[in-house]
């Protein structure tokens, strides 16, 4: 298995409820290492650009408004097989379908306010990490 990095975002519903530490505990317990992390307020243009792949979806405008509704914590997570591993740790996009013990089952409020984002492929992970972090901000 290859050592990989994936991009995680702890979303505004989670920062609002002060549960970023609880989410980080689940991440670290799973074996993923947080090798970069910062708390930021996204601008509307940044949120639009980050989710540009969803621009044609009916939920796009609401998603962008939600993502700028409060601070987020952006993170780089590292482990063997990190992309798929983090998707397992997050659980299904809709928390109603998320397995017990996953972040979304434990913390998410709805399909929109679903507490975390994780890259869906290694290729997108590289793009998403570069969107938020420069090389010298990441240290294993
Ligand atoms: P995320 O992994 O951040 O990627 C896109 C986000 O759109 C997704 O998580 C959800 O929070 C959000 N979203 C809102 N409505 C929907 C929907 N109907 N289907 C899929 N994603 C949705």
What does it look like?
With 140 residues, this protein is of the alpha+beta class. 39% of the residues lie in helices and 20% in strands. The protein contains seven helices and four strands. It has helices at residues 12-16, 20-29, 44-50, 60-67, 82-90, 103-107, 122-132; strands spanning 3-10, 33-40, 72-80, 116-118. Strands 2-3-1-4 form a four-stranded antiparallel sheet. The longest helix is centred in the C-terminal third of the chain and has 11 residues, at 122-132. The protein is globular, with a radius of gyration of 14 Å. The model has no long low-confidence stretch (mean pLDDT 97). Adenosine-3',5'-cyclic-monophosphate is lined by residues 54, 59, 63, 93, 111-112, 114, 117.
Summed up:
By secondary structure, this protein is of the alpha+beta class. The protein is built from seven helices and four strands; from the N terminus they run βααβααβααβα. Helix content is 39%, strand content 20%.
